[in-house]
Design goal:
alpha/beta, 6-stranded mixed sheet, 393 residues, single chain, 9 helices
Length: 393
């Protein structure tokens, strides 16, 4: 059941898989580049084909980041099953994992065989960290509970990152945090980052779910009864970091319900299972089906990495899909003025460890569970499979 759920989320047809109707395209870099590079640019000759279906899109990944954004470049107008091109690709300082990906008309992609190139510039490259903080303590909706430490969360993180090296910081708080203002940050990142920069975005607010379990980050003016009114959907949080020049991207979400959520599918089929039952029996049957689906979902999350990282961003959420993100917890006899998640991030950033994005993920996941006695479990909504990078220069 867990496997079937992951296949459904990947958009694959289980019946087509069983009958062999599915065909997967092939794509490769045919001119293997030299490993050592000093120019910062590599020419890639790419060839792709599909035995059965037309090719629709292509992209190139550098360190698992799509350089043409999550949508890639369309080649559907060519109506072809065979395609080739030559591209000039800018490299990031250090080792570059290069992959090419094509998608056929079924939405299936090739296996992404990697090639590696190590770029050593003749002169030092000046890079910086761009930090964006989004924190809301106060809300216009009278039914909303105001929070205590969301603003201090993003401000404290900004100070910690600034101490780590060259950094630009931009912090939005309370009434500055609207869906329109957050969307506008995309232009700022487009214009003010380069491929060797790091971008860290931290969000601290209420996390809300709509009636389909979709996550929304609460803005200052969100309608808490219907978060689609003024709330920021998760897809728009992802969009902030999609297609920007910087290739090292980290999104931190300190909010309730911020992990991946179960979406109960096939509603009509589920309701049909209860046809003819009295109200009490119907309720018992529905609850049983829901619990079975949740169990399969939780198993899926434990067994399978989410490989649909379409923006190349590492996303770490403070809590599971139906968990609270706790604040005002007690550490060593004192109540801390941060959420448990942000407090753990700050501990890591202020430590004498080698600060890497994977190190942060591991530390925070373990530390928050300890601080909250298991009541809160951070999750990775998206992660890079192989690539790690340093949080400071």
């Amino acid at each position: 059941e867990a496997w079937e759920k992951r296949i459904d989320r990947l958009g694959l047809d289980k019946e087509m898989l069983a009958t062999g109707e599915i065909a997967v395209p092939n794509a490769e870099i045919v001119n293997v580049p030299e490993y050592n590079n000093t120019s910062g640019v590599v020419e890639l000759k790419i060839e792709a084909s599909d035995p059965k279906y037309e090719l629709r899109h292509f992209n190139v990944l550098v360190n698992e980041v799509p350089i043409y954004g999550s949508r890639g470049i369309s080649i559907s107008d060519l109506h072809t099953k065979d395609w080739d091109t030559t591209l000039s690709v800018a490299l990031t300082e250090g080792e570059n994992k290069l992959q090419v990906v094509v998608m056929n008309e079924l939405g299936l992609q090739n296996f992404k065989y990697p090639e590696y190139v190590n770029y050593t510039p003749d002169q030092d490259i000046v890079s910086k960290t761009v930090y964006i903080g989004i924190g809301v303590n106060e809300f216009t909706d009278a039914t909303a509970t105001d929070l205590k430490y969301c603003v201090s969360d993003v401000q404290d993180l900004g100070r910690a990152i600034y101490k780590m090296g060259t950094a630009d910081t931009l912090i939005l708080t309370n009434n500055e945090v609207t869906r329109e203002n957050v969307r506008a940050l995309k232009d700022y990142l487009q214009q003010n980052t380069s491929i060797n920069d790091r971008v860290l975005v931290s969000c601290s607010s209420h996390g809300l779910l709509d009636n389909k379990n979709n996550f929304y980050l609460a803005m200052h003016n969100t309608n808490f009864s219907d978060p689609t009114e003024g709330g920021l959907p998760y897809a728009e949080l992802e969009e902030l970091l999609d297609s920007i020049p910087a290739r090292r991207k980290l999104l931190l979400i300190d909010a309730c319900n911020s992990g991946e959520n179960e979406i109960l599918e096939h509603e009509q089929e589920i309701l049909a299972l209860t046809e003819g039952l009295d109200e009490k029996s119907r309720g018992i049957k529905l609850e049983s089906v829901i619990q079975d689906q949740k169990s399969a979902f939780e198993t899926m999350m434990g067994l399978f990495v989410n490989v649909q990282n379409e923006t190349g961003t590492v996303v770490i959420s403070a809590a599971g899909g139906k968990q609270s993100a706790l604040e005002a917890i007690v550490v060593d006899g004192e109540t801390i003025a941060n959420g448990a998640f942000t407090f753990s991030v700050l501990e890591y950033l202020n430590s004498d460890k080698d600060l890497t994005v994977n190190g942060l993920k591991t530390y925070v996941e373990n530390r928050v569970v300890l601080l909250t006695n298991g009541a809160q479990q951070p999750t990775s909504r998206q992660e890079t499979m192989e690539v790690d990078w340093v949080l400071s220069r």
